Amino acid sequence: MGFLGRALIHAAGFAHASYLDRLYSEIAVGDPNYSYAILSMMEMGVLGVICGYEVARFVWRLMPRSVQLTPHRVETRMRIASVALLLIAVPWVLLSVVDGYIRLKTSSSFHQHLAILTPYTPQKDIRLLRSRYAAMRTRADYEALMNDMAKLAESNHITLPQNKLYPF
């Protein structure tokens, strides 16, 4: 993999980490800002340029220098364009699905665990947990909060449902 490929992978990793932190920040305040749309548009633009360039290079190498557009060649080009479009559309749809899944699971797991703990926990501690949830800015903040809730449940001999946000 060349320099450009390594740079793109590094940039994608940074964008992914930034995206997750922003997502948790939005979840904490209930912001319906769907920042994934902006990020995914940027991702699709970059992927579109890269895929388009690579497909054009591939087709250019396959075609003889004196090309006459026959119906067969037009059909082949349409298939290649369809595959390139699919390579752009699939990540966009997957990102949208994952975004919705993380938002739903993060919020519902916290509120479910809080509802279970409320009868067994002093109101001051419940308010503190809600405050920490509202102040959450990163995935690490969420994980620390859920770990503290698990410790609180264990000290009160309560079994909380498994947090299935990250099953893989």
Mean pLDDT: 77
Q: Low-confidence spans: pLDDT under 50, at least 5 residues?
A: none
Q: Specify the structural class.
A: mainly alpha
Q: Biggest β-sheet: count, sense, barrel?
A: none
- Strand percentage: under 5%
- The rounded distance between the terminal residues' Cα atoms is 28 Å
* Outline: elongated
What's the oligomerization state?
single chain
Radius of gyration: 24 Å
Structure annotation, total helices: 5
Compressed to H and E, one letter per element, the order equals HHHHH
Q: Helix share of residues?
A: over 70%
Number of strands: 0
Summary, kept brief:
By secondary structure, the protein is mainly α. The chain has helices at residues 3-29, 36-62, 71-117, 123-134, 139-155.
Structure report:
By secondary structure, this protein is an all-alpha fold. The chain has helices at 3-29, 36-62, 71-117, 123-134, 139-155. α1 (3-29) runs parallel beside α3, α2 runs antiparallel to α3 and α3 (71-117) packs parallel to α5 (139-155).
State the main characteristics.
mainly alpha; 168 residues; elongated
How would you summarize the topology of this molecule?
Elements: H1 3-29, H2 36-62, H3 71-117, H4 123-134, H5 139-155
